[in-house]
Amino acid sequence: MITFIRFFILGTLAFVVSACATLKSPVDNDFRLGPNSTNGLAFGTVTQPIVDVLLKPNTVYVFESIDGKISFEVKAYDIQLLGIKGRDKIGNNEGQMFAVELPAGTYKINRWVVRIGYAYNTTRHPLKPFYFEVQPGKATYIGELNSAQGQSWNTPGTAHVGVYNGGLLTPKVYWYPRIIDQTRRDLALFRNQYPNMKSIKVLKHIQHIGPLQTIEQNQTNNN
User: Fold this and answer.
1) DSSP symbols for 14-62
2) Residue 80 domain-assigned?
3) Residue 46 and residue 87: Cα distance in Å, rounded?
4) Helix (H, G, I), strand (E, B) or coil at 64
C-alpha cells in the first residue's frame, strides 16, 4: 500500500511538472524568423519504417529545456480530422521534416513514444538525454530521429518496442530509436520546406549518433 501511494504521488508530481511546461509546436512552412529575434530554431527529420497495417505506429520524440519550462514533441506524421498529414517518403522510410521556434538555451531529449492507431495506445520510453543548443536568429540541426527495425531483440539498455508489420497473425518486429547524421539531405529538405529560412545561418549539433539508451536499466518491455 505504501509503495502504491509513493508511485501515485510521484506520478501526480510528474504530471503537474509537465503540465506547467510551455508546449511548443512545429512552425508552419511560411514561417519567418525576424532578424532581431531572441529565438532560434531546432530542426531535423522524424522517420520510421513503412508498414501496411490498420493501426499504424506513430513514433514521437519529446524534448524539453533543461529548466523544464519548455517542451516540444515531433512525430513521424500528424493525425487530423480529415486523415493523416505527413508520411512523406524520406529515403527508404516515411516521416516528415520539422522545425520548432524556441527561446535561446539548452535543450535535451526526454523520451521516445510509440502511439498505435487513432486511440493513442501508447508505449513510453524515458531516454538518457542528449543535449543541444539553440542560438538567437540561427537554426540548429539535431539530426534524423529514426526508428529502425530489427527482427529480434538482444541489446540490453536500448529503448525498443515490438510492432506488427503485417497484421496480428504475423510475427512482431522490433523498433528502436536512433539518431542519424543526414546533414546534406535534411538541409536541402529544410531549405525547400521553409523558403523564408534559406538565408538563416545553420548550426549542426548532433551530440549523439546511434541507438538511444533508456534510463530504465533493467527494461524488459517487449510489448
Assistant:
1) HHHHHHHSEEE-BPPTT----TT-SEEEEEEEEEE-----SS-EEEEEE
2) yes
3) 10
4) strand
| Confidence (pTM) | 0.81
Could you report the per-residue pLDDT of 143-172, keeping only the tens digit for each? 999 999 876 676 777 888 877 665 556 667
Number of domains in the chain: 1
- Between CA 19 and CA 36 the distance in angstroms is 30
Q: Which amino acid is at 69?
A: K
Widest CA span of the chain, in angstroms?
59
**Residue 57: what residue type?**
P
SS3 132: strand
pLDDT value for 5? 38
58 within some domain = yes
Cα separation, 40 vs 24, in Å, equals 13
* Structural domain span for residue 175: 25-211
192: amino acid identity, one letter: N
**Does a structural domain hold residue 217?**
no
Residue 89: which CATH number?
A: 2.60.40.3540
User: What long-range pairs does 27-30 form, CB within 8 A, spacing at least 24?
Assistant: 27/99, 27/100, 27/101, 27/194, 29/193, 29/194, 29/195, 30/195, 30/196
Flag whether 19 is in a domain.
Answer: no
With a CB cutoff of 8 Å and minimum separation 6, the contacts of 38 are: 103, 104, 136
